Amino acid sequence: MAMWNLWHGCHKKSEGCLNCYMFRGDFKRGNNPEDIHKTNSFYAPVAKNKKGEYKIKKGSMIWTCFTSDFFIEEADQWREEAWQMIKERSDCQFFFITKRPERIEKNLPADWLDGYDNVWIGVTCETQKRADERLPIFKALPIKKKNIICEPMLEKVDFSKYLDDDIYQLVCGGESGSKARPCHFDWILDLKMQCEKANVNFWFKQTGYRFVKDGKMYLVPRKFQHSQARKANL
């Protein structure tokens, strides 16, 4: 697995951005998270060693642009070059998420057709409102590998009408940080049932900081949020 941060910074777009890890980290370091800029690792997927071999190995999963949004407007000038690198590295898989499904279709490469085999796209939906806004657009797009990301999960959400064999996986998790809003285990279990009925893969990724189970709230330190989610065996 490799990380590829093409550009950094993101405008607050919805409820899920209010307490996000990137915003908190930038503010702590005295940086402006709304400053969108190209990173020094922009050309990482095509970088080579002294032998002329790609530094990122064949078959790698490359988590792409996780400190911003791949389809953010301010990055339009750089995106075509990013697509060229993704096409060049057809031997690797690229995964990115977005809050902007309405911008996907007009920002796809000219030879996209029904999608690149090595590109996974996920759309984030932290509330029912966002799911109903974003998923009808997302579902209609020509993408071979689609994911739904319900993280941070801020309320109980019904995804059932969007789950079918067009969706590979639904990922969910709570919100981290001292100001995190609660995530309820009952919501997680309900999502798992929705996915089972639709035969869609399900991943409970992390508990978040304020996790409610059996009517009791647990404050889970960040270093344990992923491991505690794994213990649920969902």
From TrEMBL:
Localization annotation: Membrane
Pfam entry (one): DUF5131
Membrane association type: Multi-pass membrane protein
Keywords, sorted A to Z: Membrane, Transmembrane, Transmembrane helix
Entry-linked PROSITE patterns: CLAUDIN
GO CC entries: membrane
Main location: membrane
Coiled coil: none
Keyword Transmembrane helix set for record: yes
Protein name: Protein gp37
Species name: Anaerorhabdus furcosa
Lineage of source species: Bacteria, Bacillati, Bacillota, Erysipelotrichia, Erysipelotrichales
